[in-house]
Automatic annotation (TrEMBL):
Domain TFIIS N-terminal intervals: 5-82
Principal location class: nucleus
Protein name: Transcription elongation factor A protein 1
Alphabetized UniProt keyword annotations: Nucleus
Amino acid sequence: MATEDEIIRIAKKMDKMVQKKNAAGALDLLKELKNIPMTLELLQSTRIGMSVNAIRKQSTDEEVTSLAKSLIKSWKKLLDGPSTDKDSEEKKKEPASSSQNSPEAREESSSSSNSSSRKEEGSAPSNSFIPSFPRAPSTSDSVRVKCREMLSAALRTGDDYIAIGADEEELGSQIEEDILSPIFQELKNTDMKYKNRVRSRIANLKDAKNPNLRKNVLCGNIPPDKFAKMTAEEMASDELKEMRKNLTKEAIREHQMAKTGVLLEEGIVKTSGPV
């Protein structure tokens, strides 16, 4: 419990630094964290990963950013699967009569933890403190580099990326890679089709009336490869989708009324016969 309290204390200090945009003393806090034995449970209960990632993004001190990256990298390893093996080993070791450590008890504890996490993060995934995306291959193409920068800038709209803890630069690069891949296979260049698709992603990410799209992309609910292929209709805000739905219903209704009117008119002509 003392360790958890210590991590929470450090996280609060870091959050204040981010709010004040003053990272003085961040290096000492990161060094403290480095000496604390970290577990998956502590990462999920304290959300320290978000605080460290926010400091990393804001600080201009190379030593701070380097240590923050190192900590995040080591913590991500805890999320990549060892906990699953550990759980299975513990299940084998524990006595059947133990109620406190029974699978049901662990399931209830896990459910409670995930539920709490979902409340804090909304629609963000509950099993990770920082969304993890595949690293995109580097490129020296000036057009592609510029597009990656613009996509990353669009993801920074509203500062949601800080709260979620996403690496918007890496995510922007991955989205660009997924946009290019199918087009490049077809056209073999970064032509207008590529640029138009990039522009449409940027416009929708920056849309003030559609913040949920950006948040869902940042937290991983919409993976980069899926976002790269989404149509304008799929990216639209809930409000716009509802408006389109109502317009479609109205158009169908008017078409049916017009058709009914024509049929009635034809029926009158037929029944009346020649004069």
